[in-house]
């Protein structure tokens, strides 16, 4: 994106952004999420302390899609929990839309690895649940749910129950359930990792389609480096624990991207190699 490119015009090789200032949108008002020198220490019941994050800073612009990759146990999910207020920083500050995070923000939506569907509700009722919870009259919410069910390709399955659907279809329900609330920020933690490769590729295309029409920001946590590169505007690489930001890569592959094709782009292959070299160092350290 242009703001990031400008900030690092003198950096070589291209695509690599420095961890601190380069991760910043040009103006604070453009930031959806900000981590300002955040450290987080967990204290276990026996008093043992674990430093999960150390001096971690990042900014995500409004409308931007970023992916976070890092070794296992490095603190990727912890960053999402800080954005939702499930965790509070020990040091530093996390801001959402310019305000310090103190409670869950209704503008945030989530899609995690496990399906968050109600097994006893039909697809329609599952998708309508969010708007109903937020006060939309039931009939209106169901009508809206039907539109979203159609949009994610499940038009004939509105009256089905989750156990009657495949894993990919349940994921479509999860996307409809989330996007119906028009989240300004979408947090995704390994959302497609339980799916087979083919379904996963379809879901990635689906996500990009929904996101590009939404104007929201996405923070996507994944173990899959190729998934991160294929989807994101920028990829944030974390160090091994205690995690801090190792490097930020700008992914200037043109959009719209088609998942089954983008992986063969020479630029994609080059980025994969470079980011993997970075990651390998961290995995090796553990
Ligand atoms: N509630 C907790 N109490 C103590 N330690 C915790 C707690 N939650 C997470 N941790 C530790 O903090 C570190 C970061 O955890 P986190 O789940 O954020 O890692 P991750 O990068 O998402 O891992 P993975 O890739 O395996 O999903 C881990 O070492 C984990 O053991």
What does this structure look like?
The chain is an alpha/beta fold and 286 residues long. Helices cover 36% and strands 23% of the residues. It contains 9 helices and 11 strands. Strand 8, helix 6 (197-214) and strand 9 form a beta-alpha-beta unit. The radius of gyration is 19 Å and the shape is globular. The structure holds adenosine-5'-triphosphate (ATP). Residues 42, 44, 50, 52, 70, 72-78, 223, 241 line the site of adenosine-5'-triphosphate (ATP). Residues 1-22 are annotated as: Disordered. It comes from Comamonas odontotermitis. GO terms for molecular function: ATP binding. Keywords: ATP-binding, Cell membrane, Membrane, Nucleotide-binding, Transport.
Describe the structure concisely.
The chain is α/β, with parallel strands linked by helices and 286 residues long. Helix content is 36%, strand content 23%.
């Amino acid at each position: 994106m242009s703001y990031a490119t400008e900030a690092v015009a003198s950096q070589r090789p291209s695509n690599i952004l420095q961890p601190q200032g380069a991760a910043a949108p040009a103006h604070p008002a453009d930031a959806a999420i900000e981590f300002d020198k955040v450290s987080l220490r967990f204290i276990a019941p026996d008093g043992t302390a674990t430093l999960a994050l150390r001096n971690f800073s990042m900014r995500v612009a409004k409308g931007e899609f970023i992916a976070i990759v890092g070794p296992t146990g490095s603190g990727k999910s912890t960053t999402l929990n800080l954005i939702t207020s499930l965790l509070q920083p020990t040091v530093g500050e996390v801001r959402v839309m310019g305000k310090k995070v103190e409670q869950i923000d209704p503008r945030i939506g989530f899609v995690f690895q496990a399906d968050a569907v109600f097994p006893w509700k039909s697809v329609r009722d599952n998708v309508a649940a969010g708007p109903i919870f937020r006060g939309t009259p039931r009939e209106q919410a169901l009508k809206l749910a039907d539109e979203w069910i159609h949009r994610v390709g499940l038009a004939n399955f509105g009256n089905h129950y989750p156990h009657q659907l495949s894993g990919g279809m349940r994921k479509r329900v999860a996307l409809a359930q989330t996007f119906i609330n028009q989240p300004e920020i979408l947090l995704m933690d390994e959302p497609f990792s339980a799916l087979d490769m083919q379904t996963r590729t379809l879901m990635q295309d689906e996500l990009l389609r929904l996101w590009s029409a939404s104007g929201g920001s996405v923070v996507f946590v994944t173990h899959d480096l190729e998934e991160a590169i294929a989807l994101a505007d920028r990829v944030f690489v974390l160090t091994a624990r205690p995690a801090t930001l190792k490097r930020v890569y700008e992914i200037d592959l043109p959009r719209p991207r088609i998942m089954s094709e983008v992986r063969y782009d020479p630029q994609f292959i080059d980025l994969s190699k470079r980011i993997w070299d970075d990651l390998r160092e961290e995995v090796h350290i553990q």
